[in-house]
Amino acid sequence: MEIDIVRDYSNVDKSLNEAERLFKNNRYKRAIEIAEQALESVEPGVTKHIEEEVIKQ
């Protein structure tokens, strides 16, 4: 029997919505910090990977 694992991403959704709100209110640094934390909670190391890809361009 295969067990399906369902992740609850509601906290990630809330964090990204908060980051967007902060960004729209010109609080860029805090917005990035919150977005990074949310992304890292799903996939550790992803922000470093994104940074490396942006630098390549």
UniProtKB/TrEMBL annotation:
Q: Which domain of life is it from?
A: Bacteria
Pfam families the UniProt entry points to: EzrA (PF06160)
Write out the GO biological process terms: division septum assembly; septin ring assembly
Keywords, ordered alphabetically = Cell cycle, Cell division, Coiled coil, Membrane, Septation, Transmembrane, Transmembrane helix
For this entry, the protein name equals Septation ring formation regulator EzrA
Q: Which gene encodes it?
A: ezrA_1
Species source reads: Staphylococcus aureus
Which ranges of the sequence are coiled-coil? none
> Where in or outside the cell is it found?
Cell membrane
Q: How does it sit in the membrane?
A: Single-pass membrane protein
GO cellular component terms, semicolon-separated: plasma membrane; septin ring
Q: What is its main location?
A: membrane
